[in-house]
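Two proteins were folded this term; both appear here.
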Amino acid sequence: MRSAAPCDAKASVGRLTRTGRQILDLADRAVPRSIIGWFVVCWGTFLLASVVVGALLLSLYEQSTTEQLRRASAAVAHGCDAIAARYQFFTTGATRAPADVHDPDLTRGLTGVVQIALRDLNGVEGGIWQRGEGSLAYAFPTYEGTGQKTDLPEAELPSIREAADTAALDGAPFDRRREGRAQTLLLHACPLPGPVPGLSAWTMARVPTTGGQAYIQAMAGLSVLLLVVLGSAAWLGRLLLGWSRRLQRVEAALTSSNDELPKLDLTGQRDLDRIVEAINRAGIRLAEARRTSEALVRQVAEANRLATLGRVVAGVAHEIRNPIAAMRLKAENAVAAGPDLARKDNALRVIVEQIGRLETLLRNLLSSVQRAPLVALPVKDVAAFLTERIELFREQAAEQGLELEVCGGGAEARFDPARIAQAIDNLILNAIQNTPAGGRVTLSAERIGDRMALSVADTGRGVPEEVRAHLFEPFVTGRSEGTGLGLAVVREIAEAHGGTVRAVHRSDGTVFVLELPWRPS
């Protein structure tokens, strides 16, 4: 409960400091860019909408033109078929060709055929053509000019001749489409079987692509959009210029300050003045909070340092006190033994063991706080490396009735052999100490992607539930005689190599997995 107040104070100081920094950043950089950027985004959105609307207008114009072309193409094809049907009716009962194809009566009859066939097709003109003789009839019933149009269009005469002759020769319909700058010409010809040889019908329509109603509407809409975009750009530019000048004055005042927020003058712009007043108020609060927070931070840091040092000293004192007490007791027994040499030898042996325990404690303690530089060397055979480590504990394991074995790991790798050997030794010793007689300790190595996993598995009693969350922290152990530094050293060595160490808790024991970057030699 005593540490709650410093923690709350530290959190409050941190929040005030972050708030002050955010306000400084807002005043120094974000405000000018965000406000101007907001205007630019708004205008950019409007511009995008205008572009989309303009694209829609053009698309509608193109669709309208496409639809007109489709309808005109269908009309000329239908007109040609209508002429063919009327001509077939006109020549019913005729068995031979007339002597003169230019006979006035025949011309009037054929012209009537064309007029009747095209009278309901707006904008479609057509006629009857004989290969080698030319036009026999022509009509444009829906002509919008004054009077009746009876003369062939001279400009399109070569195209008409080509289409009509081709249809007559091939005995099949013929289509031609010619694109112009202001209009598209659609021409269709179809053969006319009957008593007159080489005869064909043709129809023609013109579809305006520029200058028509759809084109005028599209251009008018685009012109209005252009005027609106230019007008809005000029209006927003004027607004941005005014904002930019005011923001430059605020930025200059903020840039001239060092640690404290200066008192800013009002700009005369209502929205910006609210920000200026907020910055001025925040500057006053920040100055007061900074003075308070600096004192609290120093107090909290000192309290944390003392608490950490206290935990370390308490752990070391506890670990040293047990071997010293054992050595004292055995020394007193040796003194009281008198001439009993066996009793004295036993006491000296115990004292030597406790001294070794103290040396192990100090070595692990130094390893956990000192990070020596890594010396990465190629290890040609990881299996041989693991076998070498396990042979050091073969005799100790045999005394406890345990089996040691190595599985896998024949590939090459690159790491610090001395440091990894120390980590493996700690894990093997930990497994031996936690495995009852008849159990097994297994070392293995395998490559998992771009990492190498060194595993030490035992069939022991497992890690107590209450220490699993802090297993790799210093002075945390599940055994009364343990120092709680071996696994902490393993973690330090793994992190020094850029790897990790973890424990896998199973029903039949524990597996410690040391994962390192593969770094093949």
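Next, the second protein.
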Amino acid sequence: MSDIIQLLPDHVANQIAAGEVVQRPASVVKELLENAIDAGATEIKLILKEAGKTLVQVIDNGKGMSTTDARLSFERHATSKIRSAEDLFQLHTKGFRGEALASIAAIAHVELKTKQEQDELGTEILIEGSHVKSQEATVVPKGTSVAVKNLFFNIPARRNFLKSNTVELRHVTDEFHRVALAHPDIAFTMFHNGSELFNLQSSNYRQRVVHIFGSKTNEKLVPVEEHTEVLKVSGFVGKPEFSKKTKSEQFFFVNNRFIKSPYLNHAINAAFEGLLKDGYHPSYFLNLTVDPKTIDINIHPTKTEIKFDDEHTLYAILRSAVKHSLGQFNIAPVLDFESNTNLNTPYNYKDKAGQTPTIEVDRSFNPFADESSKTPSKSFKSSASHFTKPTANWESLYVGLESKSNSNDGDDFSEVTFESDSETGSIFKDDEVKQEKTTYQLHKKYIVSTIKSGMLIVDQNRAHQRILYENLLKQLTSKEATTQQLLFPLELHFTTSDMEAIKQLQSDLEHAGFEFTDIQNEQLTIKGVPVGVAEAEVKIVLEQLISDVVNDVPDQNFSASDLLAKSMAKSLAIKTGQVLEKDEQEHLVNSLFACKEPSVSPTNKTTFITFGVNDIEKKFM
């Protein structure tokens, strides 16, 4: 039998490795930005075209590479950070596996320009699909420029899995935020299709957070600071009243590296216990510093998950640090055993003696005396003078009414007869009389109703989503939505990336009934909203819409109108726990079965189930 195991060619191995390293343009952005930081850059520029599908270019002013290093950087497992296996537990840098540039070069056109400060000439290398096309000396400034063009040009199947430019740009922006927040001392700029999205100058951590998420963020931040032998915590958490329905403003950094940790996230939620409304999430921007020996970074391809040696201790420290900050800055309620300040004596009366109130009694008052004989006492004359005496000859007010009514011919209503409904016998027998339909609300979540074959149970939230979805979709497609004008224009504040998503959906939002007067980089002014949308719900609707644009939209068969209808229906639908009156319950059930697809919600979840009489009888057998 012949041998069947063989070594893969290098270009095939690189493409397989690229499947782990490069999933979308955001992955390329992350790797290139981290390499620039490791090179000691103080200014980093990110340039994108078509959300990175056509071009991702990172330019830095770091120390650059020699000609030999520039060529070796595209080889597999080529790195300057690791010399032995023990070095994996002493990592203070970003990229250390040496697969990033090799994997990127296997699936794109890469152009590298680099020069060290002491060299007169730099190096330019062109690579297409792992094949070096050219390498030559050239005049370039100090630092490194890496341009990645036509991502997945040789793997069309992978390129087809990329989503719309809106979604991909959002993922790139998230990666940009994570790197920029971890290094506030480095200046970052970001351009997309020729327009500048971010220009972040070197600053402190608070200013970096405010510059990324908008000037209104400054008033929302509560500082957190805790130093122990095991863990050092610094950063900020958001005030509970500014919490969001999405987790877009939650950042953990361990040794200046962004991570995702559901366990530590639970510690933050525990610190906010009792301060947040249901369905809302706290904002936090926390830097954790631990000994590199106590963590394992290399357990996930994207290095966003870290294994800690002692998670329970970190959990307790983090929870107590956040809880302490919330209490220190009077965010969390505290037990107060002091007296009520409203009962204290005002300063103006602190030196005055108390006066006993006097009681005046009208001893001449007799309720049984005649009206003419009633004479108010002296003490009550002044108060009685303010009241007018009722008209004595009240009969004179009605003189002439009888003659006036008799003068109108044909208007004598002295005898009025009413036409009574004729009684008709029922054509049905008594047992065939149609019973009145009755509905009940179960656990403030389900509506139970009787039907001919048995019993109907409706999920009130999903049913209302279906009703709203079909109505909104009809308004959007016909462009005949009704706008409700606001008495005062509504000003909302969003981040720069959120505003980009709103601008792309502006025309569809206007067709849905929104009316905008001013759209700036971080502020949105609305003077009209769709009928049925409360002013307090506008921000919730738009935040939910932005979240759906990022997470739920595939590139194929993408319809902005469909997305908007689904998102608004999700935000405006009756929630679980809302009490409904009988009329509301019946109207909801009737409206559901008037829909085209009453059996499923807009997200393809069941809206109702039925129990036949036979099914119920089987339960008693």
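Confidence is low (pLDDT under 50) at residues 379-387, 428-434. Residues 444 and 577 are 5 Å apart (CA to CA). These notes refer to the second protein only.
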